[in-house]
Write a structure and sequence with these properties.
alpha/beta; four-stranded antiparallel sheet; binds pyridoxal-5'-phosphate; 14 helices; seven-stranded mixed sheet; Aspartate Aminotransferase, domain 2
Amino acid sequence: MIDLRSDTVTKPSKQMLEVMSQAKVGDDVFGEDPSVNELQEYAAALFGKEASIFCASGTQTNQIAINLHVQPGAEVICHYESHVFKYEGGGIAKNSGASTRTVGGDRGRITVNEIEPWINPKYDVHYPLTQLVSIEDTSNRGGGAVYDFEEIKNIKKFCSNKGLPLHLDGARVFNALVENNVDYKEYAQQFDSISVCLSKGLGAPIGSLLIGDSSLIERARRVRKVFGGGMRQAGFIAAAGLYALKNNVLRLKEDHNGAKRIEKKLLEMPWVEHVLEVETNIVVCILKDSSRVNEFVNKFEANNILIMPFGKGMLRMVTHLDVSQNDILEVCAFIESLE
Ligand SMILES: *Cc1c(COP(=O)(O)O)cnc(C)c1O
């Protein structure tokens, strides 16, 4: 099977398993797991931030961050296709009692112009207090679109002027960073909190990090516990995360090249209406006949290729480290055979 449904489907490599089995562990709720501590320090240093905290999932890191930034009744500004709004089970309302002001924007990204009209006036009691802006880089629903760093800086400047924190859902931030070539630290400076997934394209089996200044991360430890996310000998999985950060970042470029090749092939096919221009590892294909989504998904599956239906008339294919160059050739050949 060639599994293009998501970059979450990767399995730990032999080397990664080896590192995991050798990990030194302790009780991380007591702060005593050396492997967790090493990962947290490494990730914080990588982004030039003071601290980070290892969590079970990207949903958990996002939800902890939101909980730290907002009070009940306040409002979070985010894109209407963002993961924090669309794919976290209503967690913003449920966990933090906050409301959401969703805004539009090209391919899952938002600009200052899209945020500005929705900052509520603080001194008018009718309005919920705007307390956070959250952006996603790369954008999942936007087909892996990468933010222009200038736009991020504009958003940060704007938020700072309004006294608003800026959160990054960086589930695929390394896919963005290998493409935009921005210095990690300069990039991270723009955000008050950063959520990073280790279990997407980086290939670790479990885990995400929330990165920020030490006072934020100290408070995050309490919220993680309350959310049931305190883990004990988590060093076995933290070791996989550290291995992933050290070995699997630069190779993301290969995934992007593979996705580009699939895009090119799709664009040659008469049944394809449009492909969102591939920027990273996600290919979103819009069919001419939107009623054929299931038919295509089934045909791919019958040929041992798994892809994902992605809303009306759309298919998603994601490349990752368990998809080889040969697999890409096979996928392209199969696409060519379809009518
Ligand atoms: C995958 C993903 C997350 C986190 O998902 P989990 O499955 O909870 O780890 C967050 N944001 C985006 C954009 C994602 O794609």
